[in-house]
């Protein structure tokens, strides 16, 4: 095997910031930050989502809107489209 072509395989501390859960595992992820965990300093990598906070793994349902996508769009942007009410009244 050729030397000096493989990335460093080391223990890395991953932090799921949504669930505030730490995972210590081996990885080739490169980080600039470090954090102490259980009395030892590890490279630190924050995560937005992991198995500790993902709805598929936790079984939690996300709240969905009862109105349709078109109704939601019209509610937000209906005033911007088409003619104004004054212009529509004067055309009659």
Major sheet summary line: 4 strands, mixed
Q: Rg to the nearest angstrom? A: 26 Å
Total helix count?
Answer: 3
SS-based class: alpha+beta
Q: What is the share of helical residues?
A: 10-25%
Biggest sheet strand line-up: 2-1-4-3
Poorly predicted ranges (pLDDT <50, ≥5 residues)?
none
The number of E-state strands comes to 4
What is the H-and-E element order?
EEEEHHH
Beta-strand content estimate: 25-35%
Quick one: overall form?
A: elongated
How far from one another are the termini? 83 Å
Q: Say what oligomer this is.
A: single chain
Mean pLDDT: 81
Organism: Psychrobacter saeujeotis
Protein name: Large ribosomal subunit protein bL31B
InterPro entries: Ribosomal_bL28/bL31-like_sf, Ribosomal_bL31, Ribosomal_bL31_B, Ribosomal_bL31_sf
Family: Belongs to the bacterial ribosomal protein bL31 family. Type B subfamily.
